[in-house]
Write a structure and sequence with these properties.
Helix content: 40-55%
Strand content: 5-15%
Number of strands: 4
Number of helices: 6
Distance between the termini: 41 Å
Largest sheet: 2 strands, parallel
Shape: elongated
Radius of gyration: 16 Å
Order of helices and strands: HHEHHEHHEE
Strand order of the largest sheet: 1-2
Length: 133
């Protein structure tokens, strides 16, 4: 059985939404933190959470990174490629770059032979191998 988290659940939790659903949400995330329940957080949802928090809620980048990094410590939340995702957030926090670009850099950093085909010269500030097609 697959159990996934949707964007709106994470947004409500991270923004401390005070409606009646939030009270149930606190119990839900407490069960995830204590590993009484397990869910998977898909990368696409994570990126959507970042986009919504940044564009709609105007949450500062540092707060988004802190909130998501805190969630990564919850024993009941599984994230595939967790180290790459954590590195993505580190790069994003430190650099003036789009989150997807930071993810690509994080993916490429672990292998010096890797190549990124892109016309975006902003990648040149990273220690990766960028080529134009």
């Amino acid at each position: 059985m697959i159990v996934l988290l949707d964007t709106n659940v994470l947004i409500r939790f991270l923004t401390h939404d005070k409606d009646t659903k939030y009270k149930k949400l606190y119990t839900f995330f407490e069960s995830l933190e204590l590993d009484k329940m397990r869910v998977e957080l898909k990368l696409i949802v994570l990126f959507q959470v970042i986009f919504v928090l940044q564009s709609f809620y105007r949450v500062p980048k540092e707060e988004i990174v802190a909130g998501l990094t805190g969630l990564f410590k919850y024993k009941g939340i599984t994230i595939k490629e967790k180290k790459i995702v954590q590195r993505t957030l580190e790069i994003w926090r430190e650099e003036n770059a789009e989150i997807v670009d930071c993810y690509l850099v994080a993916c490429l950093e672990k292998d010096g032979q890797s190549i990124l085909y892109s016309y975006d010269r902003d990648f040149n500030k990273f220690k990766i191998n960028r080529k134009e097609p």
